Amino acid sequence: MEPGVDIKEAAARLKSAASVCVLTGAGISAESGVPTFRGEDGLWKSYRAEELATPEAFERDPVLVWQWYNWRRELLRPLEPNAAHRALSELEGCCKDFSLVTQNVDGLHELAGSRHIFELHGNIWRTRCTGCATVSTRREDLSDEAGGLPRCECGALLRPDIVWFGESLEPRVITGAVEAAKRADFFFVVGTSSVVQPAASLSVMAKEAGAYVVEINPEATAVTGLVDLAIKSKATLALPQFL
Ligand code: NAD
Ligand code: ZN
């Protein structure tokens, strides 16, 4: 089939969808200037993310882990949502049942105005208490707090509210995301390589439950073979245009 015909079909499916679900990954934030973990600009003092984003690293050296998060927070602070984030926030306004599932921790969807978000891997602007489990949004620079170790009012150490390597996803968040994927008539997968679970399986679940699945990614990914339409383009171009 010609791509133009597929796009018309996809647009009609979106228009008639009672429930829409979108899954996003690091690619949607790339054009806002968010560094990837893997690229050169994602490196800090030559540590790899896998060496710092773990419960063991935090136990061993919480000051080091907080220094890394503070560095990442300051890199993210001036960055703004792009046309793709904004397009999704507008789409939410047009749908009765809309869910946004993201693997990103940068908070840019929220800044763009999206409301119904499942943040699978947490959010870098939130802290969680290692004692009483209180979660708070703390956007201010935390690097000077208590010798680099921010603490809760209860006295216990705060950690970033991020799901680290080796940790399980928050049950409420993953359950909500799975339900949204299965309920969807239209499912978008944008800017994710779909190698990290459960991102890949969400697209499969949506497809198996009958959704029309559209992928936006300049590269082929693990799920390209199963989607109804793959738009090989950057999110900031393809999403506003398509919507
Ligand atoms: P990934 O790095 O594995 O894949 C990114 C995908 O985006 C690739 O398939 C790439 O082709 C695509 N892409 C690149 N530029 C794009 C563009 N302009 N438009 C559309 N697509 C584009 O990312 P992932 O699948 O999200 O997995 C990475 C993991 O690292 C996640 O667990 C995530 O939590 C974490 N992470 C988060 C951020 C963030 O919060 N922004 C940044 C880096 C890493
Ligand atoms: Zn506490």
Record keyword descriptors for this entry.
alpha/beta; binds nicotinamide-adenine-dinucleotide; binds zinc ion
What is the gist of this entry?
By secondary structure, the chain is an alpha/beta fold.
Description:
With 243 residues, this protein is an alpha/beta fold. The protein has 10 helices and 9 strands. It has a 6-stranded parallel β-sheet, sandwiched between helices. Strand 2, helix 7 and strand 3 form a beta-alpha-beta unit. Helix 6 packs parallel to helix 10 and helix 8 packs parallel to helix 9. The protein binds nicotinamide-adenine-dinucleotide and zinc ion. The site of nicotinamide-adenine-dinucleotide has 27 residues, from helix 2. Zinc ion binds next to loops.
Coarse structural class: alpha/beta
User: What shape does the CA trace take?
Assistant: elongated
Mean pLDDT across residues: 94
Ions, cofactors and other ligands present here are:
nicotinamide-adenine-dinucleotide, zinc ion
How would you characterize the largest beta sheet? 6 strands, parallel
Helix segment count? 10
| Secondary structure: helix percent | 25-40%
- Spatial strand order of the main sheet: 3-2-1-7-8-9
Distance between the termini: 21 Å
Rg from alpha-carbon coordinates: 19 Å
Please tally the β strands and state the result: 9
* Order of SSEs: HEHHHHHEHEEEEHEHEEH
Strand content: 15-25%
Low-confidence runs of at least 5 consecutive residues: none
